[in-house]
Amino acid sequence: MILTNLAPDLRNVNLFLVGMMGAGKSTTGQVLAQRLAYHFFDTDALIVQATGQSVDAIFQTHGESGFRKIETSVLAELASYRNLVIATGGGIVLTPQNWSHLRHGLVVWLDVDLPTLWTRLNQDQSRPLLKTPDPRATLAALLEARRSLYAQADVRVAVPGEASPEQVAERVFAAIAPVLRRD
Ligand SMILES: Nc1ncnc2c1ncn2[C@@H]1O[C@H](COP(=O)(O)OP(=O)(O)OP(=O)(O)O)[C@@H](O)[C@H]1O
Ligand SMILES: O=C(O)C1=C[C@@H](O)[C@@H](O)[C@H](O)C1
Ligand SMILES: [Mg+2]
């Protein structure tokens, strides 16, 4: 057997990574997909590909609500596939309709503390929601407002700031295997 590393129960399900911007959904998701021999998709990257515009440019031209509509369309399409690891955008949990798509798979929350998020994001100009006079306070407020939504995930993985993407992927793997076996 070549695939001894894979639990058979991990077949035929999509894994949706949710969490704050900077939580490492895109970075860890790619490692996790390799680990599981799944395909990897990133809703933000697909939106950029489909529109030919950056996330920031979409926010500027169509507003956050315009971005959220495109995000929901992309998510709906992805949900009809199987065996994907999907890194979602940090705000995917805000749109109630998105949950009907997310619930087709297993939703995993990468729970990262605020200081770690800020360390990762404070030099990054690509997050439109952080273009405010006090981006750290904005990030804190977003986390506070969204925490209860992320907590609706099937699995919460607490991610220590010092854990590498490979270590985070291993933690996710360890956390999801027992959950899937119960189904
Ligand atoms: N485990 C990690 N250790 C150190 N740095 C990390 C880790 N995971 C991600 N990073 C870094 O943090 C930044 C944000 O990561 P990433 O883009 O994967 O987050 P995200 O959750 O996809 O955010 P968004 O919701 O904005 O798409 C990147 O610079 C990435 O290299
Ligand atoms: O947290 C958010 O609302 C966002 C996170 C990013 O992934 C992008 O989807 C966009 O910058 C919005
Ligand atoms: Mg991302």
TrEMBL record:
Listed EC numbers: 2.7.1.71
Example of a GO biological process term: amino acid biosynthetic process
Residues that bind ATP: G22, A23, G24, K25, S26, T27, R127
Record keywords: Amino-acid biosynthesis, Aromatic amino acid biosynthesis, ATP-binding, Cytoplasm, Kinase, Magnesium, Metal-binding, Nucleotide-binding, Transferase
Gene Ontology terms for molecular function: ATP binding; magnesium ion binding; shikimate kinase activity
Binding annotation for substrate: D44, R68, G90, R146
Involved pathway(s): Metabolic intermediate biosynthesis; chorismate biosynthesis; chorismate from D-erythrose 4-phosphate and phosphoenolpyruvate: step 5/7
Cofactor(s) the record lists: Mg(2+)
Catalysed transformations (reactions): shikimate + ATP = 3-phosphoshikimate + ADP + H(+)
GO CC annotations, alphabetized: cytoplasm
Range of residues in the leader sequence: none
Cross-referenced InterPro entries: P-loop_NTPase, Shikimate/glucono_kinase, Shikimate_kinase/TSH1, Shikimate_kinase_CS
Gene3D superfamilies, alphabetized: P-loop containing nucleotide triphosphate hydrolases
Subcellular location: Cytoplasm
Biological role: Catalyzes the specific phosphorylation of the 3-hydroxyl group of shikimic acid using ATP as a cosubstrate.
Assembly and binders: Monomer.
Family: Belongs to the shikimate kinase family.
Protein name per the record: Shikimate kinase
Source organism of the structure: Lyngbya confervoides BDU141951
Gene: aroK
